[in-house]
Amino acid sequence: MDVQLKKGVIELVILKMLNKQDMYGYEINNQINTRLEINKSTVYAILQKLIINNYCEIFIGELSDGPIRKYYRLTEKGRAYLENLEGEWKKFMHKVQDLLKCDY
């Protein structure tokens, strides 16, 4: 799959995951890699972009039986961005499906 297309899809997936729950980077990477092989640096680059754009924020969390971890949380701005991206993705997919059905 094209790298740029994959990054766009992964951004949407990360936003969707963070909309459901706060997560740490390694956890996000592992969840995605169960279905789609990507480099972990891709996940962290996308997370950094989301932070810079104020779509998500970082907080430090500690499990009672585990290490201190850096968690990512979606912001309200991030939720609005996710809603917009989901709408754009659905429109795009419908158009692609229409194109694939054509008998050129």
TrEMBL record:
Entries under Pfam families matching the protein: PadR
InterPro entries per UniProt: Metal_resp_DNA-bind_regulator (IPR052509), Tscrpt_reg_PadR_N (IPR005149), WH-like_DNA-bd_sf (IPR036388), WH_DNA-bd_sf (IPR036390)
Domain Transcription regulator PadR N-terminal: residue ranges: 14-83
Name of the protein: PadR family transcriptional regulator, regulatory protein PadR
Gene name in the database record: padR
